[in-house]
């Protein structure tokens, strides 16, 4: 391998993914692939009702040994995820429900059998005595007095209410005020692989071992040990290949605790593999936001203020570790988006309902927030008669203002937001599209152009999370680097990849510093036994935090290797350099391989004073400032809407993003493609509905629609590169960004297409039915007639 | 999502099936392609004592051509039709519709007889076969009988099967050279079940003009004489004079109360007719 080839493996190289060799050949190892001798399968008895008193769970005597019920778990603590924010009301999520169930799918008993099918047979033999209570299914009604209560001791259904007012009064005189009611549907996260756990008690290690696909193995260990009353040294979490997480696999589940408790007593491994019905109806809920938002502007489109009441349906319990209020409370801090304006007021509610707990999903609060503020920006544009991008350009924080502390004290680290928008708009030829729009399509469809721009705080650290006061606050991110006797390198990190390609990208960083060929650098992650403590993979933080830690640890290895190399070269340490994997001194050079060989296998050749740390370093890393990186992107969508059928087709999609220095540009593109697919799901397809009794209405992928290959267009991507000022290499977190802007960009495009009909959609997903209902409503409003579709167009 | 324990039989001929399904002491389900029954078993929506797999029966895989029809065994797959392993006598209608059913993996196993008997209103065969005037042949303890496809479906997930009866074949009339057809379905995504279907056939030589509103709540709404929808001069250019108001009244009379459903079904039929016109 030439020096040139080696360079092409470092930071900035689009190296093919190491993990693809096994994943694309079907050779990955996921939880469901694990087979342990004597392993038995588990199926859970789940509540069929959303809200009910539990009067009894009756198990036939013959099955009692193999069924776990709540009274067995008296010594197990419930899951409790508190927040330090003032006024937060904590909830206790029982491992197995007793007294009350508060959501469909809540666990009531665990059945153990040789096979899952037999365990499901046992479910039918367990008799439930439930007394149904009125279900709380509408978060807005749940806030009002007189609503049924989930947690009676609270006196209401509000986990947390927050309020911020920054010079709001000043905006009230603005000549333009646009108010919109905007909402995003509840969604299910739907990674390809659901949750799953194999639990076994290791007698030799006196340790409970859980194999579970987890983004956050160390956090799960901490939470699990606390619930089960174990020392954390008695718990080991192994997270093998993970088939997508998106937030769901960071959560501590009652299922895991139940399995762990049983495995400690039964003498054999037990396994639970979540099926898709469990996933959709009982687990992975996210995204349900409601906004009443007003934008205040002058007639030139300059934003003067924003006022908002935001409500988030947090579901029945505060989930561990992120809590029930992270979503809503973040809304208040990030709603201002990438804009600079002087007046702001926002009130938020995190409301408890009889649904699954809301969990942080790729983009967390950002997708809803971007949808809300960006719809308002377009509404202001329509009100002023300006092009939407012109309004945005008047209000975006400019490059000359960077770094910029915005109205909620978010510290935008760097970037040129207006340029991203200008480039994205330049890519679509707006004048030509406007002309085409005016002419009309031959097939009767209506085309529209929409845009959205956001900035995404990622990799935010201690200073941000200490304020939230949740069970998890990230500190220094640690990595271990250690050379092997043959000159290879092992990296150990506490984050875990659920699709991020870290087996490829983190070695690229080590290679950049040490020059060791990436094929000889092995990433060890996903096992609490072998890796340093970490809060794990969330918040678009791995490249910045674990990448920074790997860089720091690799530099330490470089220093140690130079010490040994200098001795071997009979030079002083300050006379040598590390160049392309060799320590070079005044009189010659020595390879890292020879240095490792000497340290491990020929220690007799080393002086007494050699640094005893050898070639191994564990070291922590924080960016210079840990208030987060702010990657950003402008998305522009061109759509065609069929006003007769309500169908929406995406004709063109442009993304211009700035992730700072990209460690592996191909991997970044992949992140953006995947996020875009999920964003299109939010915009057009995905919706987890509940009826008035709190029953989830989608239990299969026939009812819960995900976009497929034919629904996701190939976007046109362009990258800007403004280095982050506080991170290693200038890297910014970009993992979630693709999923943030699509509902806003597509929503604005649809509204642009339908503006001639006086139609504006403000609710996701924009289904054909919602499009037709809105058209019908606008038409009947004009005609002063009923909403009956026969009143318009086709049937007239 | 695992099925209950059930017995499994795979008879070699129809005569071997009939006694199994006549046994009313236990719940018996016939499996043709299994593309709907499989998930229903896994979700325990059906909990049979016995599943009778009929895909090993040669007779049900045969295709017979008669002077005026093509007769397909019930276990002919969607892919058999899509790939034209079944000779097409419908001027491309059946292969085109087959190619739009769900996904290829479903089409490889799903069967025409299974689909019609499952009687999902959103499925494709029930609508296009109703438009083409196809019939099904059923065999049971009392012998054989034939029923028009639209009558075979009694309602959502309900077929006109008497005790001990099974579907053995589907007979599709051959179309004249001058016949034209159109088929339009509205799905939210590729492979999804339809929310509205319009199907249309005009075959002047045989004096046929049929229209179907499919993907309703129940049976397809069949307009046996579609000329009323087309106005004057429609033989040369169907679709130009489509009477949307009358179409709306027809679907409403067919039981469709939701105005948006009515609109999408009327538009689907109009587009199907336009497609026939432009063919």
Report on this structure.
The complex is a heterodimer of chains A (796) and B (279). With 796 residues, chain A is an alpha+beta fold. Among the domains of chain A are: 3-26 and 476-621, Aldehyde Oxidoreductase, domain 4; 285-462 and 625-765, Aldehyde oxidase/xanthine dehydrogenase, molybdopterin binding domain (Aldehyde Oxidoreductase, domain 4), CATH 3.30.365.10. Chain A is built from 19 helices and 30 strands. A seven-stranded mixed sheet of chain A has the order 3-5-1-13-10-11-12. In chain A, strands 7-17-16-15-8 form a five-stranded mixed sheet. A four-stranded mixed sheet of chain A has the order 20-28-29-30, sandwiched between helices. In chain A, strand 11, helix 5 and strand 12 (235-238) form a beta-alpha-beta unit. In chain A, helix 9 packs across helix 10 (388-395), helix 15 (542-568) crosses helix 16 and helix 17 (665-685) crosses helix 18 (742-754). The longest helix of chain A is centred in the C-terminal third of the chain and has 27 residues, at 542-568. Chain A is globular and about 95 Å long. Chain B is built from eleven helices and 14 strands. Chain B is an alpha+beta fold and 279 residues long. The model of chain B has no long low-confidence stretch (mean pLDDT 95). The A-B interface holds A 115-117, 120-121, 275-277, 644-647, 685, 699-700, 702, 705, 707-711, 767-769, 772-773, 776, 787-790, 794-796 and B 1-5, 39, 43-44, 186, 188-193, 195-196, 244-245, 248, 259-260, 262-264, 266-268, 270.
What are the SSEs and their pairings?
The complex is a heterodimer of chains A (796) and B (279).
Chain A (H helix, E strand, L loop, with lengths): L2 H5 L12 H4 L16 E7 L5 E7 L8 E3 L30 E2 L5 E7 L2 H10 L1 E6 L6 H4 L15 E9 L9 E9 L2 E2 L7 E7 L4 E6 L4 H12 L6 E4 L15 H13 L3 E4 L2 H8 L1 E2 L2 E9 L5 E13 L10 H9 L8 E10 L13 H19 L3 H8 L8 E2 L5 E2 L4 H10 L3 H10 L6 E13 L3 H7 L8 E7 L5 E5 L8 H13 L6 E4 L17 H27 L8 E3 L2 E4 L2 E4 H10 L14 E6 L7 E13 L6 E11 L6 H21 L30 E5 L21 H13 L13 H16 L13
Helix pairs in contact in A: 9-10, 9-18, 14-15, 15-16, 17-18
Chain B lengths: L6 E3 L4 H9 L5 E4 L5 H6 L7 E4 L9 E3 L3 E5 L4 H5 L10 H7 L4 H6 L2 H7 L5 H9 L2 E6 L2 E6 H4 E3 L2 E2 L6 E8 L6 E7 L9 E8 L4 E7 L6 E3 L3 H4 L13 H10 L5 H20 L1
Helix pairs in contact in B: 10-11
